[in-house]
């Protein structure tokens, strides 16, 4: 063995084999976003920051979920189309590296649609109607009784996305926890009914900030609610949005005591300010009274711009060559399709509907 390693060729082969083994034992991650708008600070603290770190220790797949975006944007395909590039630019600008992360477009992996069809038979309509996130979203979108069927079942298509890549880990915001639960119910039903161990249960990985509020103080910053600071916003836009932010409505005069809890300006500082000690001092001063909202917002502007300036600059550079970005998506989609096709084969085999093959 030692002798072999003196041979540079052999050494290279052994190293390659080690690398290979390493990739084979790495856990898989599936995560992604709906291309309904450019990504925002909620995505950044809720998942993007984690993905940048995890890509080196995991096999990471990132889905741009256009088919899911169409479930509540059927009349607006142009919006979905346009935002595929925007979302991809955001990924690359924050440091997701296509050499180690596979970024792909959902609708171009039709295996996912087929898996969804089979999984739909393992879920009841009443179970889908009980999903708390879907319930909230139906209310928000004002669907009333006219809920698009595709929208109601999108958690099942998410289960297809997660299981197709045998993801062990799914880094998500809090709103996605019911989707992981639904996925694991499907995995268990499938494996029980078809006496298989093809599908793998997934674990949600929550970041330290599970739900960043909107600039309007609403529960969640969300593309569909128009209460976001985007990663692509200009410095002036960021300043303006911070200036207009909701704070403590009872903090009318500077000398009044203010409330920190539930105040979105402080929620953002908690998420972004690297100087936690100075932040504590600021919070205490605000609670006591004598610290104006303007001062706190000034600090927030500084902190946000320090984080966003380099991302914006990189994004602008990448946007100059959009065909290179589309090429990354094309290659990622081809690679993802191979993985999903393999799982689909195994699924069909477990269900005994692989009619023409004995595989
Ligand atoms: P839409 O309004 O179209 O649903 P969205 O802003 O909710 O868009 P998604 O694409 O649905 O964004 O979410 C993608 C991922 O980002 C999910 O894992 C979600 O939990 C996370 N995420 C989204 N918004 C926030 C937020 N405000 N705080 C923390 N995580 C978030
Ligand atoms: Mg959402």
Topology:
Elements: H1 2-6, H2 8-25, E1 28-33, H3 41-54, E2 59-64, H4 66-70, H5 77-94, E3 101-105, H6 111-120, H7 125-129, H8 132-140, H9 149-152, H10 154-164, E4 169-172, H11 177-193, E5 203-206, H12 235-243, H13 264-272, H14 276-288, H15 293-319, H16 322-350
Parallel strand pairs: 1-2, 2-3, 4-5
The structure holds adenosine-5'-triphosphate and magnesium ion.
Adenosine-5'-triphosphate (ATP) is lined by residues 33-34, 36, 42-43, 46-47, 172-173, 175-176, 211-212, 220-224.
Concise description?
The chain is mainly α. It is built from 16 helices and five strands. It folds into two domains: 2-212 and 322-351, Rossmann fold; 233-318, Tyrosyl-Transfer RNA Synthetase (Orthogonal Bundle), CATH 1.10.240.10.
The largest sheet, given as strand count, sense and whether it forms a barrel, is:
3 strands, parallel
Distance between the termini: 38 Å
Number of strands: 5
CATH class (first level) name of the largest domain: Alpha Beta
CATH topology of the largest domain: Rossmann fold
Tell me which CATH architecture of the largest domain applies here. 3-Layer(aba) Sandwich
The ligands found in this model are: adenosine-5'-triphosphate, magnesium ion
Task: Give the overall average pLDDT.
Answer: 92
Classify the secondary structure makeup into a structural class: mainly alpha
Oligomer: single chain
Order of SSEs: HHEHEHHEHHHHHEHEHHHHH
Shape: globular
């Amino acid at each position: 063995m030692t002798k072999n390693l003196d041979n540079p060729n052999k050494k290279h082969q052994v190293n390659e084999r080690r690398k290979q083994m390493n990739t084979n034992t790495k856990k898989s991650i599936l995560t992604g976003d709906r291309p309904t708008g450019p990504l925002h600070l909620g995505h950044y603290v809720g998942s993007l920051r984690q993905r940048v770190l995890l890509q080196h220790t995991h096999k990471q797949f990132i889905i741009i979920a256009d088919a899911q975006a169409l479930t509540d944007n059927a009349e607006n395909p142009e919006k979905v189309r346009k935002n595929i590039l925007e979302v991809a630019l955001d990924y690359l600008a924050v440091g997701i590296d296509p050499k180690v992360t596979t970024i792909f477009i959902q609708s171009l992996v039709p295996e996912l649609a087929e898996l969804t069809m089979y999984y739909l038979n393992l879920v009841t309509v009443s179970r889908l109607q009980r999903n708390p996130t879907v319930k909230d979203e139906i209310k928000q979108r004002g669907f009333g009784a006219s809920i698009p069927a595709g929208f109601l079942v999108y958690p099942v298509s998410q289960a297809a996305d997660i299981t197709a890549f045998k993801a062990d880990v799914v880094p998500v915001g809090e709103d996605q926890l019911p989707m992981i639960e639904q996925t694991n119910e499907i995995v268990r039903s499938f494996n029980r009914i078809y006496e298989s161990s093809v599908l793998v249960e997934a674990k949600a990985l929550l970041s330290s900030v599970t739900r960043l509020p909107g600039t309007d103080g609403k529960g969640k910053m969300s593309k569909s609610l128009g209460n976001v600071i985007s990663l692509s916003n200009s410095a002036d836009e960021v300043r303006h949005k911070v200036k207009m932010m909701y704070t403590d409505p009872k903090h009318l005069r500077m000398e009044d005591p203010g409330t920190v809890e539930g105040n979105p300006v402080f929620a953002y500082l908690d998420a972004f300010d690297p100087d936690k000690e100075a932040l504590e001092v600021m919070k205490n001063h605000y609670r006591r009274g004598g610290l104006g909202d303007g001062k706190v917002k000034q600090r927030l502007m500084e902190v946000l711009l320090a984080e966003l300036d380099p991302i914006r600059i990189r994004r602008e550079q990448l946007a100059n060559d959009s065909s290179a970005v589309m090429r990354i998506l094309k290659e990622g989609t081809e690679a993802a399709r191979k993985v999903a096709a393999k799982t689909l084969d195994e699924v069909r085999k477990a269900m005994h509907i692989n009619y023409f093959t004995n595989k």
